[in-house]
Amino acid sequence: xxxxxxxxPGGPRSGRVGPRRQARELALQxxxxxDVRGEPAPGSVADDFWGxxxxxxxxxxxxxxxxxxxxxxxxxxxxxxxxxxxxxDLDRMAVVDRNILRAGIFELLWGVEVPxxxxxxxxxxxxxxxxxxxxxxxINGLLDRVRRELCP
Length: 152
Prior knowledge:
The protein is mostly helical. Helices cover 68% and strands 0% of the residues.
């Protein structure tokens, strides 16, 4: 029987991810698809994407907030990535890394009710799953700099 709390349903030892993690992973996948296709807004790409998913309503709703917010603030977010990613050209970054950073920065600066350290940790767990160890360190450093310099 699952115990409540961290080891219970959806907790770290259960092998399942909670709705917020699922939402962040789905948001990354949709942001990646939009980026690769050169789409400035979700539109029909999002409709097709959601037609292929079996996410909970809660995960889908939060993923939608992350994607739409990231796209709305993308010009500012991209300027911040360029500023904080010394010696890195945004267009030469791996698409997955660029979009993990975009979503993480959106959540750090415009998100609500999630502590910055949790946001960064979630971004790192997603980077471990979808990217490389080296990229995970890069993402950690950049998001931590944004947190230290721009978060209240």
